Amino acid sequence: MIHDPVAQADRLLAAGRVRDAVMLIEQAGHSGNVDAVFRHATWKLAGTPVPRDLPGARALLRQATSLGNPDAALVEIALTANGSGAPADWAGARALLDAAAGTDRVAADQLTLLDAMTLTKDGAPIDPPDAQRIGENPGVRHIAQLFTHEECLHIAQCAADMLQPATVADPRTGRNVANPVRTSDGAVIGPTRETLVVQALNRRLAAVTGTDWRQGEALSVLRYRAGQQFRPHVDALPGTSNQRIRTVLVYLNEGFAGGATYFVNNALRVTPRTGDAIIFDNVRADGSIDPATQHAGEPVTAGVKWLATRWIRARPFSVWTGPENAA
Predict the structure, then answer these.
(1) What domain count does the chain have?
(2) Are 228 and 321 found together in one domain?
(3) Residue 176: pLDDT above 70?
(4) How far is 298 from 251, CA to CA, in rounded Å?
(5) What is 9-36 written as a DSSP string?
């Protein structure tokens, strides 16, 4: 009798015995082993060691949830709302969260945050706030307290266990090395980790920027410790077919020293305040990159700064195939 098929499958994969590992997980899943079912689902999401199959992953997540796996339930909720493997279904995702909250404290906490929001049936804000212009060339808009303190904390908690030092590929060796421009730690809240709270906030960002939520890249979270910074840069990308036309920055905390956002061209300096957001366009009217949008995250001199960034593309795209493959 196999005591832990998932651990054994991991050993088989490490030994290069991929077919045996897959067969073991499939057999254990058919026998009702919930951990094997969940592992099979994550493989189908990742596309390794089996081909990516989003509908198949959804079916396995449903099975794992019915067998009592709370982590599978949270992933199923995320994918239901963001349209991975099936059309986006906010109402269906909300119903799944309601069910999960009855037995899972994590889901219950998310439900509490969600219930504090005033949303449409599709998860969009009913009355999004207006932005106030605070700078010209580039045109920078500001919204005070776009996110609540609790919402900011939720975002930081979603990303905390995934934070990694910023790196870039060394063109000479191909190895990842420390990023000379951005020295912070960062994480991306991808489609399997997007709680309904995060997805509602992404829809709020879409509403205040006049865009479709499907145009946004996965929410990026940055943590700056003392001495860390993001040197002057522009967010637009060269040679892309689906440009980053707009950026939204949301400050997740305050109480640190330094760390202002500084726009070089007009010497505009924005002091972070918890929940405040700034919005700016990265391109000119003709779609070309606007160098006037060069900005920096100034060095933090004491404490820790948390920031969420949403880069918005010109056209909607699937996070599973990437912005360059947008229709």
Answers:
(1) 2
(2) yes
(3) no
(4) 14
(5) HHHHHHTT-HHHHHHHHHHHHHTT-HHH
14 shares a domain with 61: yes
> What tens digit of pLDDT does each residue of 7-64 get?
999 999 999 999 999 999 999 999 999 999 999 999 999 999 999 999 999 999 999 9
Q: In this structure, what is the dihedral angle of CA atoms 17, 20, 22, 28, given to the nearest 10 degrees?
A: -140
Distances (CA, A) of 53 to 27, 188, 294, 316, 325: 18, 22, 40, 21, 18
Domain hosting 98: range is 5-115
Q: How far is CA 140 from its chain centroid?
A: 23
Task: Assess whether 141 and 46 both reside in one domain.
Answer: no
Residues 75 and 9 in one domain: yes
Rounded Cα distance, 91 and 97, in Å: 10
Summarised one tens digit per residue, pLDDT across range 113-126 is: 999 999 999 999 99
Asked whether residue 253 is assigned to any structural domain, the reply reads yes
From the centroid of its chain, how far is CA 207?
17
125 assigned to some structural domain: no
pTM exceeds 0.90 for this model: yes
Identify the CATH number of the domain in which residue 148 sits: 2.60.120.620
CA separation for the pair 109, 126 (Å, rounded): 22
The tokens for 128 are 């999004």
Q: Is residue 121 one of the residues assigned to a domain?
A: no
Q: Would 111 be classed as within a structural domain?
A: yes
Contact present, 238 and 288 (Cβ < 8 Å): no
The answer to whether the beta carbons of residues 228 and 299 sit under 8 Å apart is yes
CA-to-CA distance for 19 and 8, rounded, in angstroms?
13
* Element containing residue 154 per DSSP (H, E): helix 149-160
> What integer best gives the mean pLDDT of the chain?
95
Contact by Cβ (8 Å): 182, 168: no
